[in-house]
Structure formats: structure tokens, C-alpha cells
């Protein structure tokens, strides 16, 4: 049972909940945009590229277009010095593409969706789920540390109750990640 009033003064319970919600939203976003058998034209837009002048998205640095159903062509002529950095960022992204650089053009062949590719996507989905669980645990740890730091003048029972509330919230969101990865696995393995 959650009693935000009990947590008042010990920990910002709404902030913990918001941070956990944000973690789940990010996992959903990754599952929709990065870990999918359907490659969308905007799949590369938000890849972060580290350039000499800072970080930019690939869409800010290049013109990205689809060539047919199975290839991306990325025109880096507007920022030719960042071509290698862009190719590296694509390679390191969780989309699993192998970029080919030719002067200021990067091409990416979209692999055929084989069973092996689907299995690789399932592995990525599980890794993303585990990363989300780690983020949830970090939020929980910060909340627990705040409770311990602010427990002066509060009964031990109240402190334990608030810690229990934080753990229950963590368990709920963690089980949400399990459901999401289960659904995503079914979706990815469906033919």
C-alpha cells in the first residue's frame, strides 16, 4: 500500500515514480524504434554522433534517405569531416547495421530478416530490458539512500514502511519490463 504522505520528508516519492516511469518509457521507445524487424525511414535520425564541435544527431549532419526497401543512403556532403564519426556512431548504435563509407556517402544494406537476425534482435531486447532493470535498481538505491539520510526524527517502523513502498514500486516496474520483453520476443519471433 502506497502512502505518499508517510514518505514526505524522507524521500520524494513522486520523483522516484517519475524516474521509474521514464525508464519504462525509454524501453518502450527502444523497442519501437531500435529493436524491430520493420526498418522505418527515420530509424537513423536520432543516432548521436560525436563530432569535433560536440554531439549532434545524424539527421542534423546528413541527408538520410531510403533506396528501395533494403538500403539507406546517407549523404554527408554538408559535413564531410564527420563522415567517419557518423559511420562509427551507426556501427555502435543498437540497430546492428554495418555502414560502408565511400567518400562522403555512407550506405547501409538492411539485412534480410532471417531467423538468426530475429534471434539477435531478441538478444538486444533482453539486453535493453536488463539495462532498464539496472536503471530501476539505481533509482531504488537513490531513494533508499535518501530515506536513510533523512530518517532523523522518524520512527523505525515508518522508515521500514517507506523502504517497503519503494521496493514494491521497483518490483512493479521491474515486472513491467519482464512483460515488455516477453511481448517483444513474441513479436520478433513471429514470422
UniProtKB/TrEMBL annotation:
Subcellular location: Cytoplasm
Keyword Protein biosynthesis: yes
GO biological process: translation
Residue ranges occupied by any Ribosome recycling factor domain in the UniProt entry: 27-189
Principal place of residence: cytoplasm
This protein's record includes keyword Transcription regulation: no
Span list, region Disordered: 143-162
Annotated Gene Ontology cellular component terms: mitochondrion
The organism's place on the tree of life at top rank: Eukaryota
Gene3D superfamilies: 3.30.1360.40, Ribosome-recycling factor
Keyword set, alphabetical order: Cytoplasm, Protein biosynthesis
Pfam families: RRF
GO molecular function, one term: ribosomal large subunit binding
PANTHER family linked: MITOCHONDRIAL RIBOSOME RECYCLING FACTOR PSEUDO 1 (PTHR20982:SF3), RIBOSOME RECYCLING FACTOR (PTHR20982)
Family: Belongs to the RRF family.
Protein name as it appears in the record: Ribosome-recycling factor, mitochondrial
Lineage: Eukaryota, Metazoa, Cnidaria, Anthozoa, Hexacorallia
